[in-house]
Write a structure and sequence with these properties.
The protein is α/β, with parallel strands linked by helices. It has a single domain, classed as Aminopeptidase (3-Layer(aba) Sandwich), CATH 3.40.630. Helices cover 34% and strands 18% of the residues. Strand 1 and strand 2 form a beta hairpin. Helix 3 crosses helix 7 and helix 5 packs across helix 7. The protein is globular, with a radius of gyration of 17 Å. The two termini are 23 Å apart.
Length: 282
């Protein structure tokens, strides 16, 4: 796996800022600090738009950076990651790892545009039932906004090459590796062509990648719906989750032990480079 020390260090710095308790009710100060950090980092790459939505009588915001593509006339690719965390947990993998990669994708493609426009979205309240992504998917559908693809970055930094470390819903263990040392792509049928291109991007930088098609919006395999891509499935968009498979691999999921020290930063930086490679080809 090729190393990129500067990228790995930047990812570490993002994680150090984001991986703290940040549930809006349990840890409102942490939530606001992380939201401000994400907003500031995105704004260094271009104009950032708030997308306000209401939940339980309170105002919340997603933050959106829209980067132009190098080829005019293409519909945008939306890449999102949620910045909230489960109550009282530092959420280093869930989902500071996704946020860190989102911020580095913004930095990279602001300087070197992808062929398609990229909309980079920091979602709030994923842990409350995907509320930020539901509100935004509904808004885009009402606006009849086309999307080439939606990608949800959901837990990207945990790796365990030990045999038997990777678990699956019943039946899938016969089809996929038993070691948790790959990145997963889980998409609906309209996204499959782009998933194959993204898979090649990961392979080109030395990150093993497996993909799973989720027909019928993932309803036959509900575990595939547990991130911000599923409201976009429900709205009829091509969409996919990029993931280290969460609780099917990471024993620290939704626990106080989900800390920076448990992550494999070389793996995380490889995932970031693979996404840069793949998105640069779409």
């Amino acid at each position: 796996m090729t190393r990129e020390p500067n990228l790995q260090q930047r990812l570490r710095e993002h994680l150090q800022q984001v991986a703290q308790p940040r549930d809006p009710d349990w840890s409102p100060l942490g939530h606001r600090q992380v939201e401000q950090y994400v907003q500031k980092q995105l704004s260094e790459c271009g104009p950032v738009e708030p997308f306000p939505f209401e939940a339980n009588g309170c105002q919340h915001r997603n933050w959106i950076l829209k980067l132009p593509g190098s080829r005019p006339g293409r519909p945008p690719i939306l890449v999102g990651a949620h910045f909230d965390a489960a109550p009282a947990t530092p959420g280093a993998d869930d989902n500071a790892s996704g946020v860190a990669v989102l911020l580095e994708l913004a930095r990279h493609f602001a300087a070197d545009p992808a062929p398609s426009p990229l909309w980079l979205v920091a979602f709030d309240l994923e842990e409350r039932g995907l509320l930020g992504s539901k509100a935004y998917a509904r808004f885009l559908r009402q606006q009849r906004q086309p999307l080439r693809l939606m990608l949800s970055l959901e837990m990207l930094g945990y790796r365990d090459p030990t045999p038997g470390s990777q678990r699956y819903p019943a039946g899938l263990e016969r089809l996929y590796p038993d070691r948790g040392d790959y990145i997963g792509l889980i998409g609906n049928w309209p996204a499959l062509g782009d998933l194959l291109r993204l898979q090649r991007g990961f392979q080109q930088v030395g990150i093993p990648c497996c993909w799973l098609p989720a027909g019928q919006r993932g309803l036959f395999l509900p575990v595939t719906r547990l991130s911000d891509h599923s409201p976009f499935w429900d709205a009829g968009y091509p969409a996919a989750m990029v993931t280290d498979t969460a609780f099917l691999r990471n024993p620290h999921y939704h626990k106080l032990s989900d800390t920076l020290e448990t992550l494999d930063l070389a793996f995380l930086s490889g995932v970031c480079r693979g996404l840069r490679q793949g998105l640069g080809s779409l």
